[in-house]
């Protein structure tokens, strides 16, 4: 048996704790060391009346057994008063059990409906929606929220259930689930559980694959719905959406396919053939649900820090400072965009594939870049492929399916050359490296929780394999491409051994044409942690002069050309007042699309496309769209600067001088 779950040093606030389920929760938490706030209005089971007796009796019972507890008699509608009481008494709150009456705990009546309980059912299912949203919003702060639908004897049920059933459904049979969900070692979040009589079950949504009932540029008819009704209601190979993104993803995918007139198959496995044993046949060809990814500059900077980018090397500034003129996203950030299919529980949904997640090992990783990552993405177009990420996993103990041991789709690892390396880079990992890297979305407790790491057979938490992967890729990019992300084409690596945070990683590299072979070792032990790996680079000659060329003419181009033409009339006067060179970086889709220079220092001034021929006094970074807003007077440059829509480096005060001149010579 595992060691008992304890709550020493933790403060638990329980509403409706004077009787029934709430009382049992309070006693159970106190017995295991928690300080408890016993909230109860003291009314009857309909919520009428108030009094202090119910809460006081529970507090007295806890204290008599040596526990710590205080009473609170406020209505849960005055939540701030209840919270203040807890903070005044114990200085913190670790757990809230929102149990009072019909306030937070859900019910089978809400999940399934029940005759004569329309208002009650609506409220109870509404609470589930509230809890699901709180689970999403609280996740970033490590606040979990789960919902239970208990069947237990109480004042509310004793009027409708037989006496013997009320006695059989003791609240004591529900409390253990509540304590586990509230323990800090429990990772469950956003779950819904039915519980009663010693039985516990988890519920989830299930959705049929459905049917497309229209063609491109055609309307939907009731007759089409009728004709496809069997498919619409067929739960064979059903999906289990767990988020709004997953729910809407399949609909968006259908819209893309309709728009491109691709063939739409509601069942991706319907034509699959396999020699696998019957128990595994449904897993072959299974397609994980579609999902959406969004990120900002903050996410790409967080990732760069997580894989060791540092201001100790000035060349890393471009990965760490969003105001850098050539701010870039590390190419291996592609694994973060793609990892949700692995980290959101998708493997658990594969039918016919038994997996022990404590024995899932990340064996190999391949990533190919088709297009530079924009600095920020808020939506994804299914028509534009940015990267391809291939995960190879070892599912220890889950074999026996009788199929092939490999696949023609696997990108094969390649042995390193049999000669001394052409270059070597060493890097220290921080003791906080795993804690930092996990902020990019891999929340596996194996990398932070000593107890979990011990259960998995490690002496302490290990570094994410993809973190070491990122270190190594950054070394290759630095050594052989001068940190030019546009030259990065693909990477393949095999994970051999774990790295512990604080160890030194050593990347050994061999150059053969545009392929850089590498292996990564732990400096202190000599152990190889990444083997048979390579990075493919694009040759410098293939790189366009523009950082991120876009189709279509930029609107700003016409403005710069017009400024150059009109400078001929007033150039000398403007040069005399300004005496500075301005370099403009015009972005499109989050990446630099063009560079322009306005020289108001030399001769009569001039405007030309490209970086400054000498050194620029001020560099201004702004999107093509925002540039036009500034030119048209719809966007104030200072407001744009402070909101982050316009960025500047160098002598920033000169930009104000430029603004003044442009106002004086508004015809520019």
UniProtKB/TrEMBL annotation:
Functional pathway: Lipid metabolism; fatty acid beta-oxidation
NADP listed as a keyword: no
Cellular component terms (Gene Ontology): peroxisome
Main location: other
Pfam families listed in its UniProt record: adh_short (PF00106), MaoC_dehydratas (PF01575), MFE-2_hydrat-2_N (PF22622), SCP2 (PF02036)
Gene Ontology biological process: fatty acid beta-oxidation
GO molecular function list: 3-hydroxyacyl-CoA dehydratase activity; oxidoreductase activity
UniProt keyword terms in alphabetical order: Fatty acid metabolism, Lipid metabolism, Lyase, Oxidoreductase, Peroxisome
Subcellular locations according to the entry: Peroxisome
Coiled-coil boundaries: none
Entry superkingdom: Eukaryota
Name used for this protein in its record: Peroxisomal multifunctional enzyme type 2
Natural source organism: Heterocephalus glaber (Naked mole rat)
Lineage, broadest ranks: Eukaryota, Metazoa, Chordata, Craniata, Vertebrata
